[in-house]
Design goal:
With 182 residues, the protein is mainly alpha-helical. Helix content is 87%, strand content 0%. The longest helix has 81 residues, at 5-85.
């Protein structure tokens, strides 16, 4: 039994459609992977910039603490020397010295709190960079291979319909009687 040209064409179109769907899925997967790589690279660069900023901020805070400690020491020692030269001693000098130490500690605390706030902000920015990268990655669908079973059933249905349409009325009735499931 020979296959009529319309049925052969229908089968060929279905097979080519399956191959075309496979190629489109492959191209979609390539686009997805390229987008994923670009998003991850952008996220990594943002996080590296945040880390560099955190290091700079940490160094700035350490420098400010050291500078404050030196200034406080200079001022307190100058006051102690001045008190000694003036012949003042005892509780009032101790209270003055303790006041300078307390001011220095408050300065350290404020700098430490500011540094901690900056670290929390940068942690949130890192999480934001992660979320942005994830959103960007998810903006492009991953390539999905077409179902071979679906393509085979579609090809069989198309070939059957094409074959059926080429039959005479009598042959169509015989076909229906032979393959009817109702």
């Amino acid at each position: 039994m020979a296959i009529d040209p319309m049925t052969a064409l229908s089968i060929g179109q279905s097979v080519m459609g399956f191959f075309d769907a496979q190629e489109k899925a492959k191209q979609q997967e390539i686009a997805y992977q390229q987008n994923r790589l670009a998003a991850a690279t952008a996220r990594d660069m943002k996080i590296q910039a945040l880390n560099a900023r955190a290091i700079q901020e940490s160094e700035r805070v350490a420098g400010a603490k050291l500078e404050n400690a030196i200034k406080a020491l200079e001022v307190s020692e100058a006051k102690v020397v001045a008190a000694g030269e003036a012949g003042v001693s005892g509780n009032s000098v101790d209270a003055l010295y303790n006041d300078f130490v307390a001011q220095e500690e408050r300065g350290k605390t404020v700098l430490s709190q500011n540094a901690e706030a900056m670290e929390r902000q940068m942690a949130l920015q890192r999480r934001g960079a992660d979320a942005e990268a994830e959103s960007r990655i998810n903006s492009i669908r991953q390539g999905q291979q077409p179902s071979f079973m679906s393509a085979a059933l579609s090809t069989a249905a198309s070939a059957t319909a094409s074959y059926y349409s080429g039959l005479s009325d009598t042959e169509q009735d015989a076909f229906k009687a032979k393959f009817s499931i109702f």
